[in-house]
Amino acid sequence: MDGLSAQMENLKELVLAYGTQFLSALLVLLVGLWIIKRITNVISTHALNKMPDETLAKFLSNGTNVILKVLLVISVASMIGIETTSFIAILGAAGLAVGLALQGSLSNFAGGVMILIFRPFKVSDYLEAQGLEGIVKDIGIFVTTLETFDKRILIIPNGPLANGNIINHTANDIRAVEVSIGIAYSDDIYKAQSAIEEVLKNHALILNDESNVVAVTNLGESSVDFLVRGFVKTEDYWTYFFEIRPLLKSAVESVGCSIPFPQRDVHLFETK
């Protein structure tokens, strides 16, 4: 009975010694979780309103949530007497090991963050990068997805994409379409030029207030070559691209010009 009384006294002393400390740590944990939730909600709402990409906003919100919770757990553990120095050292070593193992993934992650922040392109842009081209369908944290005109899906890692050359064909509202057309040396250059200029002037998609060009750019082996550069709205690019060539052919032919093709004179010699 004396032994039981001694154990009860020891338990009472432990409760008195650590009970208040434990309750304080529990209170800090609960209040900390509530505060973190509020902070995360504020960051999420602010990021969604200010940032152009929802993916980056969610990433920032989730990342903040995880970091604050880790700091809260370490603080609570320290309050109840757990040695946190070794715990932090273990976390650091684990983080280093994971970082070394996932170098490529971390590079893609960093590239994705840079793309989402600086916005060199957006979803629906027509992109040419890393030897590939297509319409941007999705911009993720690790990869960017393109779709080609024949409906193939191209997945490009964000690391090389962010650090390489990017051609954004649809970043501007207007595009220039360049076409080359040749006429015979015996044809009248000025008639052909006037006919081509009329095609550009009268085409419904051409922006006549831009610097459209019709000029002789080359005296080739078989033809006098014109450069025909017309500016159109970006959404009209492919429509005009396919329409303009037959119109130019008809225009130069209507003024008596012809479009030559390469010819060779072959001389045969009889040998004895």
Structure description:
- By secondary structure, the protein is an alpha+beta fold.
- It has 3 domains: 7-101, Helix Hairpins (Orthogonal Bundle), CATH 1.10.287; 121-168, SH3 type barrels (Roll); 174-254, Alpha-Beta Plaits (2-Layer Sandwich).
- The chain has 7 helices and 8 strands; from the N terminus they run H-H-H-H-E-E-E-E-H-E-E-H-E-E-H.
- The chain has helices at residues 2-50, 54-79, 85-101, 103-118, 158-163, 189-202, 237-254; strands at 126-129, 132-139, 143-147, 153-157, 166-168, 174-183, 213-219, 224-233.
- The strands form 2 sheets. It has a 5-stranded antiparallel β-sheet. Strands 6-8-7 form a 3-stranded antiparallel β-sheet, covered by helices on one side.
- Strand 3 and strand 4 (153-157) form a beta hairpin.
- The longest helix has 49 residues, at 2-50.
- The protein starts with a helix and ends in an 18-residue tail after the last helix.
- The model has no long low-confidence stretch (mean pLDDT 82).
